[in-house]
Write a structure and sequence with these properties.
Elements: E1 13-14, E2 21-22, H1 55-69, E3 102-104, E4 111-113, E5 132-136, E6 145-149, E7 155-157, E8 162-163, H2 166-178, E9 186-189, E10 194-200, E11 205-208, E12 213-222, E13 226-232, E14 236-238, E15 246-252, E16 258-265, E17 274-282, E18 285-296
Parallel strand pairs: 11-18
Antiparallel strand pairs: 1-2, 3-4, 5-6, 7-8, 7-9, 10-12, 12-16, 13-14, 13-17, 15-16, 17-18
Keywords: Disulfide bond, Glycoprotein, Immunoglobulin domain, Secreted, Signal
GO cellular component, one term: extracellular space
Region (Disordered): 178-198
């Protein structure tokens, strides 16, 4: 055995294994990293120094390796059985094409027909067609997830028709292509312009003098049409005019791009007898519908079958 030098300020010595110095514990001085005295045999005044941890380094390296191997967000992980991609060995698609378009398989090699359309069940075994995404349906009866369109707004097709979504337009185009025809393309977002049409025309009325009656008319068009009323009596008279027993009321709806209008007459007089016309007008055209008001003096004059 040999004597160990006494510890004191400014004295440093090698540990027994000769790898790292041991630093005396002094005021305000931090111990160095290395091997030092361990256990009860450490001289007084010397701070045992622990070895640098190795496990955190291994964990960090493993984490970096996992992040490097992880597929990007939105990508379907390739199957463990995926081998080299050989397109010549891929199965042929149907001769008439795919009803919902085509997508790559899980290995990203072969084309295959998309298995799920809009509002159809989706999951690992049924991938959504192009333009669709698989969305969960929590708390609802039926499938737990269905394919929904990524763009959920109406679009105008090159065929002049309005489609509720770009996905419906794409489905119509694919259907036309399978028939050997040219399918529609998207002209713009939003509904196509269209001339006015009469949704609900006014109805014929028979009533006695002094009664209160009304005519109604519902029209639609894009842009939303302007609705007016005329009385046809040799010449068209724009209503209400100067009639104090007649009022016109108009409001939007009940659906988008629709307008509903009323002619209110109270009290009814002989002068109100005649034909009334509902007219809808916008930049794409106009539409009209008419109905007749017949005024009688007594109820027994009203025929049981109208028009007689």
């Amino acid at each position: 055995m040999h004597a160990e030098p006494a510890a004191g300020p400014g004295i440093a010595r090698l540990a027994r294994d000769g790898d790292s110095p041991i630093v005396p514990r002094g005021a305000g001085q931090a111990a160095r990293v290395g091997w030092g005295w361990v256990g009860k045999g450490a001289p007084a005044g010397l701070a045992p120094v622990r070895p640098a941890p190795v496990m955190p380094r291994l964990l960090l390296a493993s984490l970096l390796l996992l992040l490097w191997a992880r597929p990007a967000a939105g990508e379907e992980p390739a199957s463990a059985s995926c081998g080299p991609c050989r397109p010549a060995l891929c199965p042929a698609l149907p001769a008439r094409g795919c009803a919902l378009g085509r997508t790559r398989d899980a290995c990203g090699c072969c084309w295959r027909c998309a298995g799920a359309g809009e509002d159809e069940a989706c999951g690992p075994g049924a991938r959504c067609a192009a333009g669709l995404e698989c969305a969960p349906r929590p708390g609802r009866a039926g499938p737990t997830a269905v394919c929904v369109c990524k763009s959920r707004y109406p679009v105008c097709g090159s065929d002049g028709l309005t489609y509720p979504s770009a996905c419906r337009l794409r489905a119509a185009a694919l259907s036309a292509q399978r028939r050997g025809q040219r399918g529609p393309s998207q002209r713009r977002k939003g509904a196509c312009e269209q001339g006015p049409s009469i949704v609900t025309p006014p109805k014929e009325i028979w009533n006695v003098t002094g009664a209160q009656i009304y005519l109604s008319c519902e029209v639609m068009g894009i842009p939303t049409p302007v609705l007016t009323w005329n009385k046809v009596s040799g010449m068209e008279l724009l209503l209400p005019g100067d009639r104090d027993n007649l009022a016109i009321q108009t409001r939007g709806g009940p659906e988008k791009h629709e307008v509903t209008g009323w002619v209110l007459i109270s009290p009814l007089s002989k002068e109100d007898d005649g034909e009334y016309e509902c007219r809808a007008l916008n930049s794409k055209g106009e539409a009209t519908a008419s109905a007749r008001i017949t005024v009688v003096d007594a109820l027994h004059e009203i025929p049981l079958t109208k028009g007689r």
